[in-house]
Specification:
Layout: E1 22-25, E2 29-35, E3 48-55, E4 61-63, E5 69-71, H1 73-86, E6 92-97, E7 103-109, H2 116-131, E8 138-147, E9 152-160, H3 161-173, E10 177-183, H4 184-195, E11 200-206, E12 209-216, E13 219-227, H5 231-246, H6 254-258, E14 261-264, H7 269-280, E15 287-288, H8 291-294, E16 299-302, H9 307-318
Parallel strand pairs: 1-6, 3-16, 6-10, 11-14, 14-15
Antiparallel strand pairs: 1-2, 2-3, 4-5, 7-9, 8-9, 11-12, 12-13
Protein backbone atom coordinates (compact mmCIF):
# COMPACT_ATOMS: atom_id res chain seq x y z
CA UNK A 1 0.00 0.00 0.00
CA UNK A 2 1.34 3.45 -0.87
CA UNK A 3 1.64 5.73 2.15
CA UNK A 4 4.09 8.07 3.80
CA UNK A 5 5.83 5.35 5.83
CA UNK A 6 8.55 5.35 3.20
CA UNK A 7 9.58 8.74 4.54
CA UNK A 8 11.16 6.89 7.44
CA UNK A 9 14.19 4.78 6.75
CA UNK A 10 15.53 1.85 8.66
CA UNK A 11 19.10 0.55 8.57
CA UNK A 12 20.11 -0.04 4.91
CA UNK A 13 20.84 -3.72 5.44
CA UNK A 14 17.22 -4.33 6.53
CA UNK A 15 15.64 -2.62 3.54
CA UNK A 16 14.86 -2.98 -0.14
CA UNK A 17 15.99 -0.72 -2.94
CA UNK A 18 13.86 1.94 -4.56
CA UNK A 19 13.11 2.27 -8.26
CA UNK A 20 15.76 4.11 -10.27
CA UNK A 21 13.21 6.73 -11.37
CA UNK A 22 12.12 9.79 -9.39
CA UNK A 23 10.08 12.95 -9.87
CA UNK A 24 10.94 16.10 -7.93
CA UNK A 25 8.12 18.56 -7.44
CA UNK A 26 8.31 22.22 -6.47
CA UNK A 27 5.55 24.80 -6.58
CA UNK A 28 6.97 26.11 -9.86
CA UNK A 29 8.27 23.09 -11.78
CA UNK A 30 8.37 19.33 -12.10
CA UNK A 31 11.54 17.36 -12.83
CA UNK A 32 12.08 13.77 -13.87
CA UNK A 33 15.39 12.02 -13.16
CA UNK A 34 16.14 8.50 -14.31
CA UNK A 35 18.73 6.21 -15.88
CA UNK A 36 20.53 7.34 -19.01
CA UNK A 37 18.85 4.52 -20.93
CA UNK A 38 15.05 5.06 -20.84
CA UNK A 39 14.34 1.35 -20.88
CA UNK A 40 16.59 0.40 -17.99
CA UNK A 41 14.61 -1.11 -15.10
CA UNK A 42 17.31 -1.76 -12.48
CA UNK A 43 16.66 -0.32 -9.01
CA UNK A 44 18.84 1.94 -6.93
CA UNK A 45 20.98 4.92 -7.90
CA UNK A 46 22.12 4.53 -11.56
CA UNK A 47 25.72 5.39 -12.56
CA UNK A 48 24.53 7.82 -15.25
CA UNK A 49 21.31 9.82 -15.23
CA UNK A 50 19.30 12.06 -17.49
CA UNK A 51 16.69 14.61 -16.51
CA UNK A 52 13.76 16.49 -17.99
CA UNK A 53 12.21 19.56 -16.33
CA UNK A 54 9.10 21.53 -17.10
CA UNK A 55 7.58 24.66 -15.53
CA UNK A 56 4.18 24.29 -13.88
CA UNK A 57 1.24 26.55 -14.70
CA UNK A 58 0.38 29.10 -12.00
CA UNK A 59 -2.89 27.30 -11.22
CA UNK A 60 -1.32 23.85 -10.79
CA UNK A 61 -2.18 23.89 -7.07
CA UNK A 62 -5.03 25.27 -5.04
CA UNK A 63 -4.87 25.81 -1.29
CA UNK A 64 -6.44 22.99 0.69
CA UNK A 65 -6.76 22.32 4.44
CA UNK A 66 -4.23 24.36 6.49
CA UNK A 67 -2.61 25.52 3.27
CA UNK A 68 -1.89 22.03 1.96
CA UNK A 69 -1.54 22.25 -1.85
CA UNK A 70 -4.15 20.29 -3.80
CA UNK A 71 -3.28 19.63 -7.45
CA UNK A 72 -5.81 20.39 -10.14
CA UNK A 73 -6.43 19.69 -13.80
CA UNK A 74 -3.51 21.79 -15.04
CA UNK A 75 -1.17 19.70 -12.85
CA UNK A 76 -2.39 16.56 -14.57
CA UNK A 77 -1.72 18.16 -17.96
CA UNK A 78 1.80 19.18 -16.92
CA UNK A 79 2.58 15.65 -15.74
CA UNK A 80 1.30 14.16 -19.01
CA UNK A 81 3.46 16.51 -21.07
CA UNK A 82 6.57 15.76 -19.01
CA UNK A 83 6.04 12.00 -19.25
CA UNK A 84 5.68 12.27 -23.01
CA UNK A 85 8.82 14.39 -23.39
CA UNK A 86 10.88 12.16 -21.09
CA UNK A 87 9.53 8.92 -22.61
CA UNK A 88 9.42 7.38 -19.14
CA UNK A 89 9.03 3.61 -19.12
CA UNK A 90 8.73 2.36 -15.57
CA UNK A 91 5.99 0.72 -13.48
CA UNK A 92 7.06 2.55 -10.31
CA UNK A 93 8.80 5.73 -9.22
CA UNK A 94 9.34 7.93 -6.18
CA UNK A 95 7.86 11.41 -5.79
CA UNK A 96 9.80 14.08 -3.89
CA UNK A 97 7.78 17.03 -2.63
CA UNK A 98 8.75 20.28 -0.87
CA UNK A 99 9.16 20.01 2.88
CA UNK A 100 6.21 22.29 3.56
CA UNK A 101 3.81 19.98 1.70
CA UNK A 102 3.93 17.70 4.77
CA UNK A 103 3.27 18.44 8.46
CA UNK A 104 5.57 17.03 11.15
CA UNK A 105 4.97 16.13 14.80
CA UNK A 106 7.39 14.85 17.44
CA UNK A 107 5.67 13.50 20.55
CA UNK A 108 6.48 11.25 23.51
CA UNK A 109 4.14 8.35 24.28
CA UNK A 110 4.18 5.24 26.46
CA UNK A 111 5.17 1.99 24.75
CA UNK A 112 4.26 3.12 21.25
CA UNK A 113 4.66 -0.20 19.44
CA UNK A 114 2.34 -2.06 21.82
CA UNK A 115 -0.35 0.62 21.65
CA UNK A 116 -0.36 1.53 17.97
CA UNK A 117 -4.10 2.27 17.83
CA UNK A 118 -3.88 4.68 20.76
CA UNK A 119 -0.85 6.37 19.21
CA UNK A 120 -2.71 6.97 15.94
CA UNK A 121 -5.65 8.42 17.86
CA UNK A 122 -3.33 10.83 19.69
CA UNK A 123 -1.58 11.84 16.48
CA UNK A 124 -4.85 12.34 14.60
CA UNK A 125 -6.10 14.58 17.41
CA UNK A 126 -2.87 16.61 17.47
CA UNK A 127 -2.76 16.94 13.69
CA UNK A 128 -6.39 18.01 13.85
CA UNK A 129 -5.27 21.22 15.55
CA UNK A 130 -2.97 21.84 12.56
CA UNK A 131 -5.40 21.04 9.78
CA UNK A 132 -8.52 22.27 11.53
CA UNK A 133 -11.30 20.59 13.46
CA UNK A 134 -12.67 18.25 12.43
CA UNK A 135 -9.47 17.02 10.81
CA UNK A 136 -9.81 15.94 7.17
CA UNK A 137 -8.95 12.34 6.27
CA UNK A 138 -5.17 12.14 6.61
CA UNK A 139 -2.35 10.21 4.99
CA UNK A 140 -0.57 9.55 8.29
CA UNK A 141 2.78 7.89 8.97
CA UNK A 142 4.64 7.44 12.23
CA UNK A 143 7.36 5.39 13.80
CA UNK A 144 9.12 5.08 17.17
CA UNK A 145 12.42 6.98 17.25
CA UNK A 146 14.06 5.76 20.45
CA UNK A 147 13.73 7.03 23.99
CA UNK A 148 12.10 10.42 24.52
CA UNK A 149 12.02 12.75 27.50
CA UNK A 150 9.04 10.74 28.77
CA UNK A 151 8.43 7.33 27.24
CA UNK A 152 9.07 6.65 23.56
CA UNK A 153 9.70 9.40 21.05
CA UNK A 154 7.43 9.16 18.02
CA UNK A 155 8.04 10.95 14.73
CA UNK A 156 4.91 11.51 12.68
CA UNK A 157 4.14 13.02 9.29
CA UNK A 158 0.80 13.75 7.72
CA UNK A 159 -0.86 15.30 4.72
CA UNK A 160 -4.56 15.53 3.86
CA UNK A 161 -5.54 12.49 1.82
CA UNK A 162 -7.14 14.77 -0.75
CA UNK A 163 -3.83 16.55 -1.33
CA UNK A 164 -1.60 13.45 -1.39
CA UNK A 165 -3.94 11.61 -3.74
CA UNK A 166 -4.05 14.61 -6.09
CA UNK A 167 -0.24 14.65 -6.40
CA UNK A 168 -0.17 10.94 -7.30
CA UNK A 169 -3.22 10.65 -9.53
CA UNK A 170 -1.72 11.67 -12.93
CA UNK A 171 1.14 9.21 -12.52
CA UNK A 172 -1.21 6.38 -11.62
CA UNK A 173 -3.37 7.13 -14.67
CA UNK A 174 -0.19 6.80 -16.74
CA UNK A 175 0.51 3.39 -15.20
CA UNK A 176 3.27 4.57 -12.84
CA UNK A 177 2.82 3.60 -9.21
CA UNK A 178 4.20 6.17 -6.77
CA UNK A 179 5.73 3.84 -4.22
CA UNK A 180 7.26 6.56 -2.05
CA UNK A 181 6.15 10.11 -1.33
CA UNK A 182 9.10 11.85 0.27
CA UNK A 183 10.10 15.34 1.35
CA UNK A 184 13.23 16.89 -0.13
CA UNK A 185 15.13 16.83 3.16
CA UNK A 186 14.44 13.17 3.84
CA UNK A 187 15.35 12.26 0.26
CA UNK A 188 18.66 14.11 0.49
CA UNK A 189 19.22 12.63 3.97
CA UNK A 190 19.57 9.18 2.42
CA UNK A 191 22.92 10.39 1.13
CA UNK A 192 23.75 12.97 3.78
CA UNK A 193 23.52 10.57 6.70
CA UNK A 194 26.15 8.33 5.09
CA UNK A 195 28.51 11.31 4.75
CA UNK A 196 28.03 11.90 8.49
CA UNK A 197 28.84 8.31 9.36
CA UNK A 198 25.30 7.89 10.69
CA UNK A 199 25.41 10.56 13.40
CA UNK A 200 24.64 14.27 13.20
CA UNK A 201 22.39 16.82 11.52
CA UNK A 202 21.38 17.03 7.88
CA UNK A 203 20.30 20.60 7.08
CA UNK A 204 18.48 21.38 3.82
CA UNK A 205 17.21 24.83 2.91
CA UNK A 206 15.31 25.40 -0.32
CA UNK A 207 12.32 27.48 -1.21
CA UNK A 208 10.58 28.86 1.84
CA UNK A 209 11.75 26.30 4.38
CA UNK A 210 14.85 25.26 6.28
CA UNK A 211 14.83 21.76 7.74
CA UNK A 212 17.10 19.90 10.16
CA UNK A 213 17.03 16.10 10.46
CA UNK A 214 18.92 14.53 13.36
CA UNK A 215 20.33 11.01 13.04
CA UNK A 216 21.86 8.63 15.58
CA UNK A 217 23.48 5.41 14.33
CA UNK A 218 21.79 5.96 10.98
CA UNK A 219 18.29 6.26 12.47
CA UNK A 220 16.18 9.39 12.23
CA UNK A 221 15.60 10.75 15.75
CA UNK A 222 14.26 14.26 15.25
CA UNK A 223 12.94 16.44 12.45
CA UNK A 224 12.23 20.18 12.46
CA UNK A 225 10.79 22.11 9.51
CA UNK A 226 10.66 25.89 9.73
CA UNK A 227 10.08 28.81 7.39
CA UNK A 228 13.39 30.41 6.40
CA UNK A 229 12.69 34.11 6.02
CA UNK A 230 16.40 34.95 6.35
CA UNK A 231 19.74 33.23 6.85
CA UNK A 232 19.97 34.65 10.38
CA UNK A 233 16.53 33.31 11.34
CA UNK A 234 17.39 29.88 9.95
CA UNK A 235 20.69 29.89 11.87
CA UNK A 236 18.82 30.65 15.10
CA UNK A 237 16.55 27.65 14.44
CA UNK A 238 19.58 25.47 13.75
CA UNK A 239 21.22 26.52 17.01
CA UNK A 240 18.03 25.69 18.91
CA UNK A 241 17.81 22.28 17.22
CA UNK A 242 21.47 21.50 17.89
CA UNK A 243 21.08 22.39 21.57
CA UNK A 244 17.95 20.24 21.86
CA UNK A 245 19.36 17.12 20.24
CA UNK A 246 22.66 17.50 22.14
CA UNK A 247 20.80 17.81 25.44
CA UNK A 248 22.43 21.14 26.31
CA UNK A 249 20.90 24.48 27.24
CA UNK A 250 19.23 26.39 24.43
CA UNK A 251 21.50 29.37 25.00
CA UNK A 252 24.72 27.39 24.65
CA UNK A 253 26.37 28.04 21.28
CA UNK A 254 28.78 25.09 21.59
CA UNK A 255 26.46 22.33 20.27
CA UNK A 256 25.74 24.28 17.09
CA UNK A 257 29.48 24.54 16.43
CA UNK A 258 30.53 21.04 17.34
CA UNK A 259 27.74 18.68 16.22
CA UNK A 260 28.55 16.90 12.92
CA UNK A 261 26.56 18.58 10.17
CA UNK A 262 25.98 18.23 6.44
CA UNK A 263 24.15 21.11 4.75
CA UNK A 264 22.94 22.26 1.36
CA UNK A 265 22.32 23.32 -1.23
CA UNK A 266 25.37 25.54 -1.49
CA UNK A 267 24.58 29.22 -1.72
CA UNK A 268 21.30 29.07 0.19
CA UNK A 269 21.21 31.93 2.73
CA UNK A 270 20.65 29.52 5.62
CA UNK A 271 23.60 27.36 4.57
CA UNK A 272 25.90 30.35 4.08
CA UNK A 273 24.98 31.67 7.53
CA UNK A 274 25.63 28.25 9.08
CA UNK A 275 29.02 27.84 7.39
CA UNK A 276 30.09 31.34 8.47
CA UNK A 277 28.97 30.72 12.06
CA UNK A 278 30.92 27.45 12.33
CA UNK A 279 34.04 29.04 10.87
CA UNK A 280 33.86 32.00 13.25
CA UNK A 281 33.25 29.71 16.23
CA UNK A 282 36.14 27.42 15.30
CA UNK A 283 33.69 24.55 14.92
CA UNK A 284 33.68 21.39 12.86
CA UNK A 285 33.47 22.17 9.11
CA UNK A 286 30.11 21.65 7.44
CA UNK A 287 30.00 18.80 4.92
CA UNK A 288 28.50 20.15 1.67
CA UNK A 289 25.45 18.34 0.38
CA UNK A 290 26.38 18.18 -3.29
CA UNK A 291 26.73 15.61 -6.06
CA UNK A 292 30.51 16.08 -6.07
CA UNK A 293 30.73 15.25 -2.35
CA UNK A 294 28.06 12.58 -1.99
CA UNK A 295 27.98 10.84 -5.39
CA UNK A 296 31.27 11.64 -7.14
CA UNK A 297 30.94 8.67 -9.49
CA UNK A 298 27.54 9.63 -10.88
CA UNK A 299 27.53 11.04 -14.41
CA UNK A 300 24.82 13.45 -15.54
CA UNK A 301 24.33 12.51 -19.18
CA UNK A 302 21.79 15.17 -20.13
CA UNK A 303 19.02 17.36 -18.84
CA UNK A 304 17.96 20.69 -17.41
CA UNK A 305 17.54 19.81 -13.73
CA UNK A 306 19.03 22.01 -11.04
CA UNK A 307 21.77 20.45 -8.90
CA UNK A 308 19.46 20.40 -5.86
CA UNK A 309 16.76 18.57 -7.83
CA UNK A 310 19.24 15.98 -9.05
CA UNK A 311 20.47 15.39 -5.51
CA UNK A 312 16.94 15.02 -4.15
CA UNK A 313 16.02 12.56 -6.91
CA UNK A 314 19.16 10.48 -6.45
CA UNK A 315 18.59 10.49 -2.70
CA UNK A 316 15.08 9.15 -3.25
CA UNK A 317 16.51 6.38 -5.42
CA UNK A 318 19.05 5.53 -2.71
CA UNK A 319 16.44 5.50 0.08
CA UNK A 320 15.44 2.23 1.67
CA UNK A 321 11.94 1.05 2.53
Amino acid sequence: MNDLKTLFRRAPWLSTKRPSHAFVLSRARLTYVGPESPGRAASGTPPAVRSVSSPLPPDAFAEGPAGAPVAGASWAGAVARLLAEAAVRTPAASLVVPDDFIRVLVVDVDDAERHAKEVEEILTWKFGRTFGEPAPPLRLSWRPAGAGAAGTRVLALAAPEEAAASWEAPFERAGIRIGAVETETLAVSSLGVMALGGDGLVVWSRGETSTAAHFEKGNLRFLRVRRAESGEAALAEFRATASFVAGDGAGDEIPAARIPCAAGPAGAPAVSALVAFREEAGGVPVIPLSLATLLPGTRVASGRAEAAELLAALGAMAGKD
